């Protein structure tokens, strides 16, 4: 049984006051994700990839279709608040803008202590303090340098590492990483990506990378799904897509991948 499966997932928005229009943001999207697998949803802005992620995260209800996680429909079979909280512990997100993930009026300690509570450990206990420090060290941060700081006092890379430290505390089965390095300095992007890969290797965490960068998707993914106008128009392993793109949009995306990089891969 796959860890996650979407079946004909569809989201339709109705816009306008006088003359209402229907916009199909996600159109009958179906795919599966297995344990320990890294899958990328690739597409330009407006392709439907983030809307798909929001439905999986149970932040936006689908218009049609279903999302099965460990065999349960996440919109029909989670019947109470406790079930939903447990789902969010198992399916966790790291978003594009790390600053937006924090309340600017609290120190960064808060997001980590909240995660410790979710695993039923008292944050201020010796065990909680130990876990907090271990999480920061896991992602390459010195606790003394970041604890007690407010979000604006840290760099974007540090803020994103702390969100990955939160994932380490929760040990989710699935991480949805929505453009997690697009607002990070280029010099730090590789280190952030490597942290996700380490989570996959150490804990068999499955990861959905949402990105517009086909080069990044090639580097991190076991499989890639190309989204265009709400539909999955191409899919396959990174090598399959690079060597034999089926859809014109995929070919267009490949043109943005540096020529030398493509030649090296195709050798």
UniProtKB/TrEMBL annotation:
Signal peptide: none
Keyword ATP-binding: yes
CDD domains, A to Z: ABC_NikE_OppD_transporters
InterPro entries associated with the record: AAA+_ATPase, ABC_transporter-like_ATP-bd, ABC_transporter-like_CS, P-loop_NTPase
PROSITE patterns: ABC_TRANSPORTER_1, ABC_TRANSPORTER_2
One Pfam entry name: ABC_tran
GO MF annotations in UniProt: ATP binding; ATP hydrolysis activity
Top-level taxon in the UniProt lineage: Archaea
Entry keyword annotation includes Nucleotide-binding: yes
UniProt keyword list: ATP-binding, Nucleotide-binding
Domain ABC transporter, chain residue ranges per copy: 4-254
Alphabetized PANTHER family for the sequence: ABC-TYPE DIPEPTIDE/OLIGOPEPTIDE TRANSPORT SYSTEM, ATPASE COMPONENT, ABC-TYPE DIPEPTIDE_OLIGOPEPTIDE TRANSPORT SYSTEM, ATPASE COMPONENT
UniProt protein name: ABC transporter ATP-binding protein
């Amino acid at each position: 049984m796959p860890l996650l499966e979407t079946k004909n997932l569809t989201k339709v928005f109705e816009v306008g006051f006088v003359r209402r229009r229907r916009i199909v943001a996600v159109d009958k999207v179906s795919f599966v994700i297995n344990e320990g697998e890294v899958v990328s949803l690739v597409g330009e802005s407006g392709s439907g990839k983030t809307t798909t992620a929001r439905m999986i995260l149970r932040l936006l209800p689908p218009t049609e279709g279903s999302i099965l996680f460990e065999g349960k429909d996440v919109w029909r079979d989670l019947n109470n608040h406790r079930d939903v909280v447990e789902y969010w512990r198992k399916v966790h997100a790291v978003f594009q803008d790390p600053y937006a993930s924090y309340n600017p009026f609290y120190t960064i300690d808060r997001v980590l202590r909240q995660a410790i509570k979710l695993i039923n450990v008292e944050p201020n206990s010796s065990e909680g303090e130990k876990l907090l420090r271990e999480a920061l060290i896991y992602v390459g941060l010195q606790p003394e340098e970041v604890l007690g700081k407010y979000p604006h006092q840290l760099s974007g890379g540090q803020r994103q590492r702390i969100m990955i430290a939160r994932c380490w505390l929760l040990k989710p089965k699935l991480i949805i990483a929505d453009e997690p390095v697009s607002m990070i300095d280029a010099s730090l992007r590789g280190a952030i990506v490597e942290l996700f890969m380490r989570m996959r290797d150490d804990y068999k965490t499955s990861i959905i990378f949402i990105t517009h960068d086909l080069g990044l998707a090639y580097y991190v993914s076991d499989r890639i799904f190309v989204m265009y106008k709400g539909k999955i128009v191409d899919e396959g392993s990174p090598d399959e897509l690079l060597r034999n793109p089926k859809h014109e949009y995929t070919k267009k995306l490949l043109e943005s991948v540096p020529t030398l990089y493509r030649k090296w891969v195709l050798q």
